[in-house]
Amino acid sequence: MSAPALSADQKKYEEEKAKRERADGASQFQLLHFSDNDRLRRLVDDPWADHDALDKLSIPFESGGRIKFLILGAGIGGILNAARLVQAGFKPEQIVIIEGAGGVGGTWYWNRYPGLHCDVEAYVYMPMLEEMEYMPTQKYASHAEIRAYLNKLLERYGLTDRVLCRTQVNGLQWDENIHAWKVDMTTGRGPEGKDMSTLWVNADIPILASGLFPNPQVPKVPGIAGFEGPMFHTSRWDYSITGGSSEEAFPVMDKLEGKRVGIIGTGATAVQCVPLLAKYAKEVFVFQRTPSQVNSRGQRDTDPKEWREVIASKAGWQRARQENLAEVISQHEETNNLVDDEWSKLPAYFACLGSKKFGTVTPDKIPEHIGLLTGLDFPHAARARDRVSQIVKDPTTAERLKTWYPTWCKRPTFSDMYLQVFNEDHVHLIDTDGKGIDSITPHGVVANGHESFIDILILSTGYRSPSYGGGDPAGKIGIEIKGRNARSMTEKWTTQGASTLHGCSSNEFPGLFWMSPIQAGATANYVHVLDLMSQHIVHIIVAAHERMGGKDKHGVIIEPSKDAEEAWAMRFMGCGSFFAGFGICTPGYLTSEGDMQRKAQAAIQAGDTAELTRMARGLIWSEGIVPFTRVLEAWREEGKLEGFEVSVAA
Predict the structure, then answer these.
(1) C-alpha angle 466-471-476 in degrees, rounded to nearest 5
(2) Full-model pTM
(3) 265-315, pLDDT tens digit by residue?
(4) Which of 77, 174, 370, 463 shows the greatest Cβ crowding within 10 Å of its Cβ?
(5) How deeply is 479 buried, as exposed, middle or buried, from its count of CB atoms within 10 A (0-12, 13-18, 19+)?
(6) Is it the case that residue 2 has pLDDT exceeding 50?
(7) Residues sharing a CB contact under 8 Å with residue 200, sequence separation 6 or more, in sequence order
(8) Sign (positive/negative) of CA torsion 317, 322, 325, 330?
(9) Tell me: domain 62-214+467-571+624-648, CATH 3.50.50.60, correct?
(10) Which pLDDT score is estimated for 1?
């Protein structure tokens, strides 16, 4: 029987995907932190650190000493773990948070570009609002408000002076003799934080909280380091060049007056900052490889009366609201949409997050499953394209801004300003039809064989994919982690694939925890994932200590058994068919620029079942995050710590 004929939309999807496929995949980019070019590497220097103030702070531990909890990262994940530990009865003095930046906030410390707000409702995104009794000022909070709030959260739990900034962890090594982790660090002091010295400490329980996107990247195009004008990456916005302040959501960028600005990239960052660039610059050139789907935003101030009487009126309201959004996106809840924004109206976005609504997807049902997904998504995708036509006056520009890929292939964006700027005569869309730019000259950017002359170059070119290395926790943050018998975590992930119990710990790496959607659950609101996993990690730690004699007990060792870890991995082996919708996606960060599809296809053609098995181990819970949560809750209610081996060091 011949395959059914493709629809016009399906043919267009395939054509657009083919234009963007490249053999070098994610290798077409270079990571700024590790660039061999000094100018590019300096693009990730910290522009926000108050070095004089930081030099006056004391180090919160004695080098060569021992601490109970060492948390790597002072973003939302690290702060949540520390706060939950204090809530559970541990003392702030037992906790140290190591942070490479000059302050706390993680992505909200680094990213301060104009127009930046959370793209998920602040009421479910900002963590621990219920405990803090805090009301966000708007439905989508600004970067400045979120950053200030995270500092307040640390203060509430007595953790402000437990953070060591300007410090990089270089490696973790399990020491069987003392039953602890030796953690080697390099810390900076001085006017630019460049006066480096080494520290080390023994930690009973390290927790990795490095976030999804720690590594900014730029394309490997000729001439990129030779541009003679000012240049910066959006993850380190340079207000000394543009004017304005990092403390404002909508800064007055008066230094752009009379300037020609070029910005490379049209992802979620550009969608938020381009309208502000257009407001102040003489000309703006927007270089596009693949357009983003732009849905309406619907920003509004928080109504205090609605907050008190509706949103935050009952105990447990934030978790209920988080789960409601996740269930609506997974198509599990159709009648009670609490958040009621555009995220909750994407009919097929669950294709990348999971859903139990459509039953088990076996390999023979993959074509039917993809047909169901695209059938659900086509009307929404068409409406998004129609919205472009309704807003953008020039038909040619409008066509170039339309997306021809399923909604789940890239993170959708939300703006009531971005599309509108392309009606301005001084804003120029330079669409490269999927190829990307050709090169950068000392005075401009070459795309489609034509040079656009600019004064300022902004690189809105994103980050390395979170799927890099199959989700290896050590590889993601670029450090070496060696467990029992000097077993390398990266080597374990490379040879076996993802190997965890509950997505947060691994055999041969006792007492080491981390947070990730790999072998766990995912949803559009990543803080929901972080909150879930931080609570679960702290539960495991508390239960283990209670079993061994209480929270004051020293030397408690917590480690998954090998059998439990393998049994957990097997629960993900059948999830691959559900996520087959990625196979029709244009390359992007969710597929590591197509590397994942190519790797899977090569393994299928070669009959390499071992490689397919390794890849399948790196999936997420295919029923969605709320069903995954119920699995963890049932495990906790049993009270057995089943699968974990707990002991006390002699």
Answers:
(1) 65
(2) 0.96
(3) 999 999 999 999 999 999 999 999 999 999 999 999 999 999 999 999 999
(4) 77
(5) buried
(6) no
(7) 63, 64, 182, 183, 184, 185
(8) negative
(9) yes
(10) 39
